[in-house]
Amino acid sequence: MAPKIERIEFLRAVRQLRRVRSFYAAGVLLWAGSAVWSGRQAPGSREMWVSVLLLAVFTALLATAGLSLRRLAVPATGRPAHHAAPHQATGSRHASSQTHAHA
After folding, report:
1. Where are the beta strands (DSSP E) in 1-83?
2. What's the rounded mean pLDDT across residues 11-16?
3. pTM of the full predicted structure?
4. CA–CA separation, 61 vs 66, rounded Å?
């Protein structure tokens, strides 16, 4: 039972890391836009340098999250990611119910 629990925790960690990565990507876009905007309005201003600093921080965080996800690549198990019913079972039921409906 322990390997199944470890796998669930592993998948949760990967999912959370993907969410964090998208948050960092949004931060990179926001601070890049802010740095460009403040650089055009007042080149060399304090606001521009703060935006550039925060852009560098979010870029480093995004790179770290990306590297961590690459190291934690989800191993392929050959099984579906969700627990769906096999498709063969539902196909045979529909065929039999259609033949009885027309009879």
Report:
1. none
2. 90
3. 0.64
4. 9
